[in-house]
Specification:
The complex is a heterodimer. In chain A, 73% of the residues lie in helices and 0% in strands. By secondary structure, chain A is mainly α. Chain A has one domain: Arp2/3 complex 21 kDa subunit ARPC3. Chain B has a domain at 123-287: Rod shape-determining protein MreC, domain 1 (Thrombin, subunit H, Beta Barrel). Classes of the chains: A mainly alpha, B alpha+beta. The interface between A and B is large, with 53 and 53 residues.
Chain lengths: 173, 418
């Protein structure tokens, strides 16, 4: 009885790993200040949301993504609701790609991801700059987008490994 | 063509309208909800503001807890790297300390004189409502460079208050919650600070540029002093928000800037914004200065203090001179002492060598003497064998008794010869 109960707890924890990762990433906002890397920043939340919305949509609920967006807005200090909107658009794009894809391929996924984050960041830039009067640095934005795109390959492989070998989900990827 | 458009619409509809197995809301409804939230937020809708404040209080605390492991690793990394740098730093600090000790009193005089003159022109600000705060979150995103501190309206923090780190300007308060506040760092692109460049007293506006740099705007090249030394960037006090003279950073003026006539003048900040732990939040107000007996007394006290400090400086200068002379004498005596010590060691060695030599000679003489006696004895014994009967006393002659010196003399002379 005790073993069954423990197994249930473990299964629940495994099920919520993507959500836990998402909340940690928005609450923590990983940065690389300590290592003195000036031109290095990427958006881990974008990668996580896109990957899981595409490959395993039941792992991340839309409500959780919406709440994560609100938290991100507060931590970063931008108007509340804007990150939620961007995250949900990203989810929509991933869901659209999932519907039209017959044979998944990492290259095609990543190109679609690049186009989506370019659109999302442009929207974000327009909202912040024209509506809310925030000044943003183009250079920082481009660096952020580039690193997010390049690191998508790495994290996609990492999440595949996590799903297949650690969480035991044979259909992932 | 028609089929392809239908497929697109179906896929889009499925993506945005279809609810998943455990989804309570469709994507589209949540997108609309976000947009409504944004619009109401931009109009400062009261209910949204309350929700915002409540979420902020929870999120800031949670973020502090979630960042715990990262902060732990960061602190350990810093401790380790500082440990390795300790020796070099110590040497550097000792040199700097000696240099700064001399400058300390001059600076004190300057400060007192500065206060005196500022009071005279009615521009003397005093710090009021000083609060020390801990940095809860210092994540600087590409969008906004800001930090969250653990003091809010409960601790009398107000919008626009100045935030300092060890006396250096790092930002101002832009958002106040009940327990927490947000500080917009001067490295943010949205931060505009009226600054003054010293020497030269050139006025400019400084905006953030990079994690550790700011950029000067509205400053003409011809106004920059043509000197090859660091230009200090201080708050000018224009606009009345900041007190004048708070240090911000430096501009290194080199020939390249003048040669290329560069547009951007980069300010290198004194503080490292990624290492902030505790900050001071302060607001400044003008000291009420009424020209009455009290202010006159104040001025007199100030003058007295300046004179005293001048005297102290003179005493210190004399003491330093004395110390210098004493040091020189000490070094000279030390040298002499060393020379004498070496001489003593040398002489000691020499005397030991001579003593050894004399002992050796004495021993040799003794051996020679002993040998000579032995040789004489052998000679006597030899002669005694041949000539002993010629000198020995018996019944028939009246010669010498054996063993007497006369007998010995007789033997050595090969028998009795009168």
């Amino acid at each position: 009885m005790n073993k069954i109960y423990q197994n249930n707890i473990l299964r629940n924890i495994q099920k919520y790993i993507p959500i836990i990762l998402l909340f940690i990433s928005v609450l923590n906002e990983f940065d690389f200040n300590d290592f003195g890397l000036i031109y290095f920043s990427f958006n881990f939340s974008y990668i996580l949301i896109f990957y899981y919305s595409l490959k395993k949509s039941e792992s991340l609920g839309y409500i959780y993504i919406f709440i994560a967006g609100l938290i991100n807005d507060i931590v970063v200090g931008i108007p509340i609701g804007i990150s939620s909107l961007m995250y949900l658009i990203l989810c929509g794009a991933a869901a659209y790609l999932r519907n039209i894809t017959l044979r998944p391929s990492l290259i095609k996924d990543s190109i679609f991801f690049l186009i989506t984050i370019l659109i999302i960041n442009s929207l974000l830039f327009m909202f912040l700059n024209f509506v809310f009067d925030y000044e943003l640095n183009y250079f920082d934005q481009i660096i952020n987008i580039s690193y997010t795109f390049f690191l998508y390959f790495l994290f996609a492989k990492l999440f595949d490994f996590l799903e297949k070998n650690i969480l035991g989900n044979r259909h992932a990827g | 063509m028609e089929t392809s458009r239908d497929d697109f619409v179906i896929a889009l509809r499925s993506a945005f309208l279809k609810k998943g197995t455990q989804q309570r809301f469709s994507l589209l409804s949540l997108i609309f909800f976000s947009i409504i939230l944004l619009i109401l937020g931009s109009f400062n809708f009261k209910a949204i503001n309350y929700v915002k404040v409540a979420i902020k209080e929870i999120v800031y605390r949670s973020s502090f807890i979630v960042s715990g492991p990262e902060n732990f690793l960061k602190n350990n990394y810093l401790i380790a790297s500082n440990h390795f740098k300790l020796y070099e730093e110590n040497k550097k600090i000792i040199t700097e300390l000696n240099y700064l000790r001399g400058k300390d009193l001059s600076q004190k005089i300057n400060i007192l004189e500065n206060i005196k003159y500022k009071k005279l022109i009615d521009d003397y600000f005093i710090g009021e409502n000083e609060t020390f705060a801990k940095v809860l979150i210092d994540k600087q995103s590409p969008f906004l460079r800001s930090i969250i501190i653990n003091k809010g309206s409960k601790n009398n923090i107000k919008l626009g208050m100045v935030v300092l780190d060890e006396g250096y300007l790092i930002g101002k308060i832009v958002e106040v919650n009940f327990f927490t506040s947000r500080v917009l760092l001067i490295s943010d692109i949205n931060s505009k600070i009226p600054v003054s460049l010293q020497p030269g007293d050139t006025q400019a506006i400084m905006s953030g540029k990079d994690k550790q740099e700011g950029v000067l705007q509205y400053v003409r090249d011809k106004n920059l002093p043509e000197i090859n030394e660091e230009i200090q960037v201080l708050t000018s006090g224009a606009g009345g928000l900041f007190k004048s003279g708070i240090p911000i950073g430096t501009i290194v003026v080199d020939d390249e800037i003048f040669a290329n006539n560069k547009e951007d003048k980069i300010v290198d900040f004194h503080r490292d914004f990624s290492q902030l732990k505790y900050v001071k939040v302060v607001s400044f107000s003008k000291e009420k200065n009424i020209l009455d007996l009290l202010s006159k007394d104040d001025a007199e006290t100030l003058n007295k203090e300046i004179t005293e400090t001048n005297q102290q400086q003179e005493t210190l200068r004399i003491l330093l001179e004395q110390k210098k002379i004493a040091d020189e004498i000490r070094i000279k005596i030390q040298k002499e002492n060393n020379f004498l010590r070496n001489e003593r060691i040398r002489l000691k060695k020499e005397s030991e060598f001579l003593r050894d030599k004399s002992v050796r000679l004495k021993n040799e003489i003794l051996i020679i003497k002993k040998n000579k006696i032995e040789n004489d004895e052998i000679e006597f014994l030899k002669m005694n064998l041949f000539y002993g009967h010629k000198c020995r006393k018996n019944m028939i002659n009246n010669l010498y008794k054996v063993g007497t010196p006369e007998y010995r003399k007789c033997v050595l002379k090969k028998g009795l010869k009168k």
